[in-house]
Design brief:
The chain is an alpha+beta fold. The protein contains 6 helices and 12 strands.
């Protein structure tokens, strides 16, 4: 296996509703067959109109009650509830709501973010269907550049057992998100019974090494990993979600 290169896509304009992300990326960097493109969730959400105004939000009683416990804006909490299946935990000390989103992600504040918004009173929601978003951008890229690609939609998630955030894939197309090694042999010939590598998340984390949160680079090309790129879109990141019956921490 050869090496890999991680390249930032610089010079992308401000993203607005119905923005063609794939075409814009292809216009800024010469894409090659087998490239994997990691795209920040924020620009995907902006292109899909997943931006809400808090000054147009009327919080309900549950949102007001939770906001008082967590020390948060009740208008923001209303959107967190709207985007969630359930509230897993309220961290009153740090002002965080851990929720299960409508997609099945377990994360802080339903993944809603207020950084890099166009106005102070705006908030950015996760895409409705991140896997669908990845498939759409893949078509846009291949239409614009005439090369075979894979796409990751990425976002920063905290981790229950370690300090710090890490970039993970919340949507993907053209790649198998999980690399299942079960049934293979280790170096001593013993059968692997539990090793399933989160390939999509590893690629997402690698992409973040060349993309600062403050430098306006929302897309990254990972090159030299074309052996992971598939002809079909694949199952998407939905395949990574753990069945609640297998979740030892809920």
């Amino acid at each position: 296996m050869g090496g890999a290169t991680v390249l930032p896509v610089e010079g992308l304009p401000e993203v607005t509703l119905t923005f063609n992300i794939g075409k814009a990326i292809a216009g800024q960097i010469q894409l090659e067959d087998g490239d994997i493109i990691a795209v920040s969730q924020k620009i995907v959400s902006k292109s899909e109109g997943r931006v809400v105004r808090l000054d147009e939000t009327d919080p309900g009683p549950e949102a007001v009650s939770l906001a008082a416990r967590a020390g948060k804006d009740p208008r923001l909490v209303q959107h967190i509830l709207d985007e969630s299946r359930s509230v897993i935990r309220v961290d009153e000390e740090r002002g965080i709501l851990i929720t299960e989103t409508s997609h099945g992600f377990i994360c802080a504040n339903a993944g809603i973010d207020q950084s890099n918004t166009g106005a102070e009173d705006e908030a950015i929601l996760l895409p409705l269907d991140p896997d669908g978003s990845a498939r759409r951008i893949r078509v846009e890229l291949e239409t614009a550049a005439s090369v075979r690609t894979a796409v990751l939609v990425t976002d920063s998630f905290g981790r229950a057992w370690r300090q710090g955030q890490v970039e993970v894939a919340i949507g993907c197309a053209g790649i198998q998100p999980l690399d299942d090694w079960r049934g293979e042999k280790d170096q001593r010939g013993r059968e692997l019974t539990a090793t399933v590598i989160s390939l999509a998340d590893q690629l997402a984390a690698a992409s973040d090494l060349v993309r600062s949160k403050t430098d306006g680079v929302p897309a990254v090309v990972l090159r030299g990993l074309g052996h992971f790129v598939t002809e079909d879109d694949g199952p998407g990141c939905a395949a990574q979600l753990r069945d609640p019956a297998d979740d030892l921490f809920r």
